[in-house]
Amino acid sequence: MPLPNHKVTICGIPELSQHCSVGVSHVLSIIDTHEPRPPVLDSFSVIDHELIRFDDVVAEYPGFEACTPAHIIKVLEFGERVHARPGSHVLVHCHAGISRSTAAAAILMCQHAPGQEEVAFLKLLGMRKHGWPNTRMVEFADTLLKRDGALLRGLDAYRRALLQEKPHLSDVIRNIGRGHELPV
């Protein structure tokens, strides 16, 4: 089954204003629990907007709200609405457009394309010059979509390809405390 035909754009909050007039039909916002709703979202014309709040962490940490399966269920419900409108243009954003948004974009591309998980994740390489999808989100989506590790294998293929292009990112990932996510 091929990837869905809807267009997917990924960005961070600072870039949202660049996308107000490009025909976006759906916006998925994944932001920190205490982050205010970005006012620039009011500049978009009629959109289907889903706001989901959790912090960009890949495990449970005191003082942070980690992603739960309930959050990913909301992402998948949003994906059903997108899928119901062929030709949609989906804008997925988080704070910086690096971790939660790239994970969510890949999940949305995989949702209705079983067997295309690696293709979907590798597509991220051309969509965002830098990204490191949130592993916890992908783990929950893999379980909820009953993909038996296919999303995680796609994530691993993406990370290997990204690090082949940009080997210096290994040090960056280690320095932010996510070295355990580096492919072995």
TrEMBL record:
Gene3D superfamilies (alphabetical): Protein tyrosine phosphatase superfamily
Pfam family, one: Y_phosphatase
Any one GO MF annotation of this record: protein tyrosine phosphatase activity
Every Tyrosine specific protein phosphatases domain range: 76-109
Source organism superkingdom: Bacteria
Protein name in the entry: Protein-tyrosine-phosphatase
Annotated source species: Reyranella soli
